[in-house]
Design a protein that fits this description.
alpha/beta, Peroxisomal Thiolase, Chain A, domain 1, 2 domains, four-stranded mixed β-sheet, 10 helices, 32% helix
């Protein structure tokens, strides 16, 4: 049985926050702080990919808002599960299936609203899924959508499930100090993917998954200098700048490793790709990976300027918007590549359509 993406749904809150939301005095302080920093010497023996990342990051730092324009923001009286439910219902309707046919529900939220509770259960109840539907909250940070896709494919191919619903949500704007320069990079939203059987000449062709576990202290959610349950307010922040810098320098190389390994296994060439979806963790990330891979026959499809960083919802959101824009169509060969902090990374290759 070939397994593929049957439909994608998406929801973003109606409130849009432009760059003019930030206090000009706060922005001026960011600019002054960046200008006062001494130039960082380039480490020796950097790979070509790391050099591209370093140059792109330095160029982005010249812009007061780090190259961003707007982001959607979840209202304080709304729940992240409201976004998840809306995205999930959108995907189910587009897939044309009955919710009772869903045997697996996999969710990821950047920070659950309650601990010691499975967040997937809340969505399961809201959607009135069958009791026999296995519901799990999966955690692979920004890589969660591709990890979920791998789990869902395995369960459906083995006959343990008919359809799987994969849901990703991000309410990052609630968990960052809005005077932090990085706050301009965060947005809120949710996506959902229905995975199920497709025609033999469509669907997932192969996938690669990698783990390098030495980068956990980089980007974290905790009280500053402590753990999430210590006294104080948990925030998204850089836990260890050196670790974060090392992880960022690896981005282009990890994407290259994941994709070239995948293409070698499947016999598909880079030139045969009709669409390349790279995780957009910053405004510069996707263009840098395109440049590093030497991709010239496919135009990058940017959504960061419109939505900012959506964590695990970033890749499904890019696919959803590409479908709306006509960039994806049946029989197109699509490669998806990305990663998440910690770190995990990989790539998935599929022929689009059902």
């Amino acid at each position: 049985m070939r397994v593929g993406i049957r439909a994608i749904g998406m929801y973003v809150p109606p409130d849009v926050r432009g760059n003019d939301w930030w206090d000009p005095n706060v922005v001026a302080r960011w600019v002054e702080q960046r200008a006062s920093r001494p130039p960082t010497p380039e480490p020796a023996n950097l790979s070509p990919g790391a050099r591209r990342v370093l140059r792109a990051g330095a160029e982005q730092a010249k812009h007061p808002y780090l190259g961003t324009h707007q982001r959607h923001v979840l209202a304080r009286d709304a729940s992240v599960h409201d976004m998840e439910e809306a995205a999930a219902r959108d995907a189910i309707e587009r897939a044309g299936i009955d919710p009772s046919e869903i045997d697996v529900l996999l969710t990821h939220v950047i920070f659950a609203e309650q601990q010691l509770a499975n967040p997937a259960c809340i969505l399961h109840q809201r959607l009135e899924l069958a009791p026999a539907c296995m519901s799990l909250h999966t955690e692979a940070t920004a890589y969660s959508s591709l990890a979920q896709l791998g789990i869902a494919e395995a369960m459906i191919r083995s006959g343990r499930a008919r359809y799987a619903l994969l849901v990703q949500s991000c309410a990052a704007t609630r968990f960052m100090d809005m005077t932090d320069p990085g706050s301009v990079l965060l947005g809120d939203g949710a996506t959902a993917i229905v995975v199920g059987p497709v025609r033999e000449d469509r669907g997932i062709l192969d996938a690669t998954h990698f783990t390098e576990g030495g980068y956990v202290p980089g980007l974290v959610m905790s009280t500053r200098g402590g753990r999430w349950y210590d006294s104080g307010t948990p925030e998204i922040h850089i836990g260890d700048p050196a670790t974060m810098a090392r992880a960022q320098l690896r981005i282009a190389d990890t994407c290259e490793q994941a994709l070239t390994t995948l293409l070698a296994r499947t016999g598909v060439t880079l030139e045969q790709l009709d669409f390349l979806c790279v995780f957009q963790g910053t405004p510069w990330l996707q263009p840098v990976v395109y440049e590093h891979l030497g991709v010239r026959h496919v135009e990058p499809f940017d959504i960061f300027q419109r939505f900012a960083y959506l964590s695990s919802a970033m890749i499904p959101a890019a696919l959803f918007m590409a479908l709306q824009a006509g960039r994806l169509a049946d029989d197109k060969v699509v490669a998806i590549v990305g990663g998440g902090t910690g770190m995990t990374y990989g790539a998935t290759l599929l022929r689009w359509g059902v």
